[in-house]
Design goal:
There is one protein chain. The protein is of the alpha+beta class. The protein is built from 4 helices and 8 strands; from the N terminus they run ααββββαβββαβ. 13% of the residues lie in helices and 31% in strands. The chain has a 5-stranded mixed beta barrel. Strands 1-8 form a two-stranded antiparallel sheet. The radius of gyration is 24 Å and the shape is elongated.
Length: 176
């Protein structure tokens, strides 16, 4: 044998053929995503275990619209009554939803035509965000929302608390 011990493995010097290490060893994580995780101090798979949530959000309960109060962060579900584009200092899409207990406005400043078309009268919407007083009405401004089929509108919300992790540009909560 020349220049090596019995049983020694050959180590490839070509990075393209070398075995992945660190986070890139996990399925779905390439060098670009690993670099984003590195900005959070996550460099090894074990580091993911200690990347703990900053807080938890309670999305286990759907609050009736009539019980929504100013300053509360909550989840609501209602049927779209109307969706109107309003022009003021900034263009906005205002969606009014209602349930058996009351009404609430949903305001989006950044929206696409596809989003606008999704808010047709009669559609069901589940939204999570902070309730604010705008004029004499209560609104959620840019809440997280999901349009639902009517059959899912009355289903229970999440079954557990939702963790919110520290993040960085290009790395969303869902990705973490």
């Amino acid at each position: 044998m020349q220049g090596g011990a019995v049983g020694a493995r050959r180590v490839s010097k070509n990075p393209a053929t070398a075995a992945p290490s660190g986070l890139t060893a996990l399925p779905g994580i390439g060098p670009a995503l690993a670099a984003k995780f590195a900005t959070l101090g996550v460099q090894e798979p074990a580091d993911l275990l200690f990347h703990l949530p900053l807080r938890y959000e309670d999305r286990t309960r759907v609050t009736p619209l009539g019980e929504a109060g100013e300053g509360e962060i909550l989840q609501v579900c209602g049927q779209v009554r109307e969706a109107v584009v309003r022009f003021g200092r900034r263009r906005s899409l205002v969606v009014e939803i209602e349930d058996d207990s009351g009404r609430l406005g949903i305001r989006l400043f950044h929206f696409s035509r596809r989003q606008q078309q999704g808010f047709r009268a009669g559609a069901w919407l589940r939204a999570y965000g902070e309730v604010r007083r705008v004029g004499h009405a209560l609104e959620m401004i840019h809440p997280e929302y999901r349009l639902l089929p009517q059959a899912q509108a009355r289903e229970p919300a999440e079954s557990q608390l939702t963790p919110v992790y520290p993040t960085t540009a290009g790395l969303s909560q869902a990705r973490i």
